[in-house]
Amino acid sequence: MVYCKTKQYRLDQVELKRLLHFYGESVLFVGVYACDSMTSTCEDLEGVYHVVKEVENDIWLHADACHGFALSFSDAYRSKVTYLRHYDSCTMDPHKVMWLPYTLSVVLMKNVDDFGTLSRTNALIMDDPLSFGKTTPFIGSKPYDSLKLWMVMKTLV
User: Fold this and answer.
1) How much of the chain, in percent, has pLDDT values that exceed 90?
2) Would you give the DSSP letter of residue 43?
3) 82 φ, ψ to 5°?
4) Structural domain boundaries of the chain?
5) Which stretches of 8-150 are assigned E, i.e. beta strand?
6) 138 Cβ partners below 8 Å, 6+ apart?
7) What is the pTM for the complete model shown?
8) CA–CA distance, 125 with 122 (Å, rounded to integer)
9) Comparing C-alpha atoms, which of 54, 61, 115 is closest to residue 87?
């Protein structure tokens, strides 16, 4: 894992480009915070996207939008996260802003076929060494749990 320096709480895009060139084909994934809950700073999602794709189109781009995804429901702030649609995946934790149950964390993929890479055969996800769990458990949806999230989202739109 390599960390990129930041400028004013956003990725330093010059440094990101340098790191991508330095590490070359060994870079598989670039992850960013769409909006940082500690600083209330929104990343330049479009700028990061273009830096990464200019260097290597096959690098997976992920945005941790756990805190910032809720901006998509705001007319005033939606533009800060609209570029999420270009990322390969993003995560959302509606318990942080929407006051929904903690277990409703969501992983969204641009390409539905990519969900197959997440399939697990182990029913005990929290004990799985490849689990997303440990901090925020990614345990998937239980019957009708996602309905709570869907109803809140439909209400906000």
Assistant:
1) 48
2) P
3) -65, -25
4) 6-156
5) 10-11, 29-33, 35-36, 41-42, 60-64, 89-92, 106-109
6) 105, 107, 125, 131, 132
7) 0.76
8) 6
9) 61
Quick check: 11 and 31 in contact, CB under 8 A?
no
Q: Which is nearest to 89 in space by CA: 121, 123, 116?
A: 116
Q: Residues 134, 101: contact at Cβ < 8 Å?
A: no
Residue written as token pair 């960013």: 32
Give the N- to C-terminal CA distance of the chain in Å, as an integer.
37
> What is the pLDDT, as a whole number, of residue 157?
79
82-132 per-position pLDDT tens digit: 999 999 999 888 877 777 777 777 888 888 888 777 655 554 445 555 555
CATH number of 6-156: 3.40.640.10
